[in-house]
Every structure is written in C-alpha cells, then in structure tokens.
Write a structure and sequence with these properties.
single chain; 366 residues; mainly alpha
C-alpha cells in the first residue's frame, strides 16, 4: 500500500502548504495588532511545522505494533497533563476562561491533542485483545466506555466541549468497528446526547452559542458575530474570491481568522472552488485512510488506522460545518491549515503512524 501511503503524505503536505499560504495572508493583521510583528504567527508556525515533519517522519519508522505496549502509559500521560492543565496555580495556562494548555518553560502544549491519540490507541488495543467478550455488556461496552469516558471528562473539565464530542464520537465508532453490539452503542449514544444537552443547558456561555446558532440575527452583535461574519465571507468571495490577501473580514470582523475560522477566509479570498478543493483533499485523506484500515490484516492495526483517519477527517468536517453555520460554534481548528503548534505536531505524528501501518502491511504481504 505504498502508493496509498504516498497519496496520504502528498495530500497532507498540499493541505499544509495551502495552510502556510493562508496564514501568510490572514495572520499578519493579528500579528501586527497583538505583537507589533506581522510575521509573528507565521514564524512560530514554521517552527511548529519543522518539528511536526521531524516527528511525523520518526513515527513512520516505528513499527505501529509497539503502540500496543504504550496504550496504557500514553493514556495515563494524557490524563495527567489534562489534570495539570486545569489545576490552579500550576503549569496550566488559562485563555478566555478555558484551561486547555500546559506550559513547560517557553513551550506551551495542548494536552487534548495528545489525548486524541491516546484514546485511539487505548480503544484499539482494548478491542483487539478482548474479541472473545466483545459482544458482552461489561467487556464489550462498559469497560471501553469507561476508558473513553475518563479522558473525555477530563477534556470537558477544561472546558472543551468540541474536542469532548469528537473524542467520544471517534471512540464509539471504534467500539462499533471492534464488534460492540449496535444496540448497546445506540443506547449509549442516546444517553450521552441527552447528558451533553443537559450540560449545555446549564452552561450559560454554551447555551447562548446554541441560541445564537438557532437565531443568528438576534445575536448578531454578540455570540453570532463570528458566525455571521464567516457566512458573509463566503458570500463576498463567491465562486472566484476577492483575491489572496484582500479579505475584509480578517481585518475587522473575524478575530479567530487565522485559527478556527480560517476556512471562511479561504472562501472569501479564493472563492468556492478553493473551498471545495479543501473538502475534496480531506475526502482523499479519508478514502486512503479507510483503504489502509480495510487492507490491514491485524485488528489492532485496522482500528488504529480507522481511528486516526476518523479523528483527522471528522475534526475537519466539524470545523467546516461550524464555519458554514451547519452546527453551533465549537473551538476546533482545521487540521493542517489552522494556526496551532500542538495541533499540527500531533496531526503529523498520527499521519506518520498511519503511513507505518500501510508500509508494514506491504511487508507482511511479501
């Protein structure tokens, strides 16, 4: 499957190169306003990208089967970092009311990015080793659900509702692929959905975001400001866009235009064709990842490949759905394209693992 692996690497690099171009366009305004340096964000992202490429290549050289032995230690490490992020007076960093980062000297890291990989590895390992009891209630549902739930609740404590939904959703899909009964998962998903809805209803900030999603015009100057600005960006851009670097929204209306809402600037500056090209590239990534998962003989490898593929592409889908107003606002970056060191480093590391699964499968067929 070296051809499939090559397509995955090529697609990831194309998306990243496109992201660098868009960051050059969008981040200069924010860099000048916040740090008096129009190149502040692009310089930092270049450093992040360099580390991401090194670690991604390193991951391609590690036999993916070794992650079986690292499943529990990795989950513990992620859990500890998530706890440290929310503990007051420690190494946690709070920004805009969310404690999602830890600081080690000059370096900040977002533990939820590591937690995404930890959940994938942990659930893949558990489902692969528990096939005899996978149809049972306890071993097939309650135990893997508890493994996912601990990390998901720690992410939720930040609070980070978007990543919690993403991690929980991918975890349930891996349980389904691993053989858990559909009936059990349906009940679990329903109960989880109701519980999550109750949490949102008792969180004033999230509830206002939901109301703004349902009635954006009523909240046009507050919670729906970014959403409406993003939608206007696509309207202004039309089919061909207003031209690279010519966005109006990034200057006056979209404070997160270089992070969570960068897809809107793509639509404004480069138009509908470029926007759909990004969607298509993530579709290619999904298809290649699914192909690797289907053709891998080892169940752990199948689930690991599927989990990585779903985590990256579903996050992209969520981000683009938020920006286009299809779902309420969530703080999820667009993989490969949005500014963010933790995101791009962990995404490339996961891509490296996926490539190793594909290449290892080729070696086993020889």
């Amino acid at each position: 499957m070296w051809k499939t692996a090559s397509v995955i690497v090529g697609t990831a690099l194309i998306l990243t190169a496109f992201g660098i171009v868009m960051l050059l366009s969008t981040s200069s305004v924010h860099g000048l306003q916040q740090f008096n340096d129009p190149n502040y964000f692009i310089k930092r992202q270049a450093l992040h990208l360099g580390l991401a490429l090194v670690l991604g290549f390193f991951a391609t050289r590690i036999d993916y089967r070794i992650w079986r032995t690292w499943a529990i230690p990795l989950a513990i490490l992620a859990a500890v970092l998530l706890v440290l992020a929310v503990l007051p007076g420690g190494i946690g960093v709070t920004v805009k009311g969310s404690s999602r980062w830890v600081r080690f000297g000059p370096v900040t890291f977002q533990p939820s990015e590591l937690a995404k990989l930890a959940v994938i590895v942990l659930v893949s390992w558990y489902m692969a080793r528990s096939q005899r009891g996978v149809r049972e209630l306890v071993r097939g549902l309650l135990i893997p659900l508890a493994l996912i739930g601990v990390i998901a609740l720690l992410i939720l404590a930040a609070p980070d509702f978007g990543t919690t939904v993403l991690v929980g959703g991918v975890g349930l899909l891996l349980m389904f692929a691993g053989g858990t009964r559909v009936g059990y998962l349906a009940i679990t998903a329903a109960l989880g959905g109701v519980s999550f809805l109750l949490l949102v209803m008792h969180n004033p900030v999230r509830m206002r975001r939901v109301m703004a999603f349902l009635n954006p015009e009523q909240y046009a100057k507050t919670e729906a400001f970014q959403l409406l600005s993003a939608i206007y960006a696509f309207v202004i851009g039309g089919a061909g866009g207003v031209g690279l670097g010519q966005s109006i929204q990034k200057r006056f209306y979209l404070p997160e235009s270089h992070t969570d809402f960068i897809f809107a600037i793509i639509g404004e500056e480069l138009g509908l064709i470029a926007s759909w090209s990004v969607v298509l590239l993530f579709g290619v990534l999904f298809w290649c990842g699914l192909r690797i998962a289907l053709r891998t003989g080892d169940l752990f490898g199948k689930l690991l490949a599927l989990g990585i593929t779903l985590m990256i592409t579903l996050q992209a889908a969520f981000n683009m759905a938020v920006v286009t107003g299809l779902v309420p606002t969530k703080g999820l970056p667009l993989p490969f394209i949005s500014y963010g060191g933790s995101s791009i480093v962990m995404t490339f590391f996961m891509i490296g693992i996926l490539v190793n699964i594909a290449l290892t499968a080729d070696e086993e067929e020889l």
